[in-house]
Amino acid sequence: MSHWIADRTASFDSSGIRKVFDLAAKMKNPINLSIGLPDFDVPEPIKLACVDAIHSGKNAYSQTQGIAPLRERLARDIAAVHPGADRDLLITSGTSGGLVLAMLAMINPGDEVIFFDPYFVMYPALVTLAGGVPVPIDTYPDFRMNVDRVAAAITPKTKMILVNSPANPTGVTASASDLQQIAELAAKHDIVLLSDEIYSQFQYDDAYVSPTRFNDKTIVIDGFSKSHAMTGWRVGFVHGPSDVIAAMTKLQQFTFVCAPQPAQWAALRGLDVDLSHHIDDYRHKRDLICDGLRGHYEFTRSTGAFYLYPKAPARYESATSFVEDAISNELLVIPGKIFSGRDTHFRISYAAPDETLQRGIEVLKRLADA
């Protein structure tokens, strides 16, 4: 029945990350440094808030835009940072749902969307799904946003610039200067600036900076999946200019309908949960993996999220062949070609117990020094 399948599905393959995830399920004791999944459980107050919502009958559809208490609380927090700005808010079915709605609401067939290579695996797929044209900008070797390269890539068809800081898969955080230049460039050319800030709380060395500081029309996508370990609960949010949010809300009404209502009440409770000890723990894990691999691999030090993106040892013809060797040693990491036009690097997720990280470091050192 292959002739039933729409052509758009051929433009992207099944996620290579999921293939590794499936492989992990078949292994007895893998050293799993592959999946971007927090290694702490959902905090207990959030669980209790969700159970309470379920038992108190909050199980129906919510308003498409989200429950009022969560929206009002987030709106107050946003207004405190952006006083007087035209910013409305939508609760989405995860940040992935927010990305889908943003693309569908703003990208017309043929519109070009600029993003940075390496990139989150969904970006080119979602641009293509919306009928747009992906325009990746190379950031090797240090993974910094280069405004000159972006400026050179802008054409009359450019509709959007998509930034992600701290970044998946590199763990690199954009500097305030680079974000300012990108934000001002987007404003100058009247191009949409979309900022994926799902890892904004995972910042280890400096205060977090959003491009909204330099361009108040920036559309921000954020959520609770990574910060509160609520990956399966599907609660995200988007804020930006009211006309854009209105269009996204209308599309959500005819697609996702709403984020799960009990999980929205849990997210509201989550806004008052102290997460600082988890962030401190991840800073420790970042130091552990970087210190353990220093001198054995080339990499740009991770400053956010929970990823490291080293270069495969020179004796391998590609990062994919290196990852195959790693898997034969029961170490699960992700080949960089899933996130990039290059097959030279691989992604480590250090969202794992320290013992697992230590086991992974020993295998990685052995592979590098063989």
Summarize the structure in short.
With 370 residues, this protein is α/β, with parallel strands linked by helices.
Question: Overview of this structure, please?
Answer:
The protein is an alpha/beta fold and 370 residues long. The chain has two domains: 2-42 and 275-369, Aspartate Aminotransferase, domain 1 (Alpha-Beta Complex), CATH 3.90.1150; 44-270, 3-Layer(aba) Sandwich (Aspartate Aminotransferase, domain 2), CATH 3.40.640. The chain is 39% helix and 14% strand. The chain is built from twelve helices and twelve strands. It has helices at 16-26, 44-55, 68-81, 94-106, 122-129, 147-153, 176-188, 242-253, 261-270, 276-293, 319-328, 354-369; strands spanning 31-32, 88-92, 112-117, 133-138, 158-164, 192-196, 219-223, 236-240, 307-308, 331-332, 334-335, 346-349. The strands form three sheets. It has a seven-stranded mixed sheet with strand order 2-8-7-6-5-3-4, sandwiched between helices. Strands 9-12-11 form a three-stranded antiparallel sheet. A two-stranded parallel ribbon has the order 1-10. α7 (176-188) links the parallel β5 and β6 (192-196). α4 (94-106) runs parallel beside α5. It is globular, with a radius of gyration of 20 Å.
